[in-house]
């Protein structure tokens, strides 16, 4: 199984750099759900998240065609940076209120994986978290989503946000405190 930062991933990225469609397909399959989940929690609808996810991978393919992908850099960080920039552009162009999470849509993801008897508990938890998350500033929302929803490490988040690890740790701690304190 493919892992982020693994030798297998580096080989696929090397092949992607050579415009190999099959390598792109493998990377796409591995990262699709992660990038979708990241974007989904930052925009207001499933369809917008799907569109922005598609645009993210299209941009990665364009970078490969232009020879701008570097094998020695983290492919995962590149993907999240592209996705993050597209979300920023989306909000700039549409003048929508940033980072609104539809509670109904947030439960859609959880319910897809949960058994029927667990769906109600998950829905309630997602509603509580969603309400509290919306009250946080966007920087806190982003770090919580990257760390707990997308399960990225502090180091990976630091690479994506281009900040020091210590800064990410402190911000995550403050974000969690703010999330706990949010009513």
Automatic annotation (TrEMBL):
GO biological process: DNA-templated transcription initiation
UniProt GO molecular function: DNA binding; sigma factor activity
UniProt cross-references to InterPro entries, sorted A to Z: RNA_pol_sigma-70-like, RNA_pol_sigma-70_dom, RNA_pol_sigma70_r2, RNA_pol_sigma70_r4_t2, RNA_pol_sigma_r2, RNA_pol_sigma_r3/r4-like, WH-like_DNA-bd_sf
Record key words, sorted: DNA-binding, Sigma factor, Transcription, Transcription regulation
RNA polymerase sigma-70 region domain residues: 27-96
Keyword Repeat: no
Entry keyword annotation includes DNA-binding: yes
Domain RNA polymerase sigma factor 70 region 4 type: 127-179
Family: Belongs to the sigma-70 factor family. ECF subfamily.
Stated name of the protein: RNA polymerase sigma factor 70 region 4 type 2 domain-containing protein
Species of the source: Candidatus Falkowbacteria bacterium RIFCSPHIGHO2_02_FULL_45_15
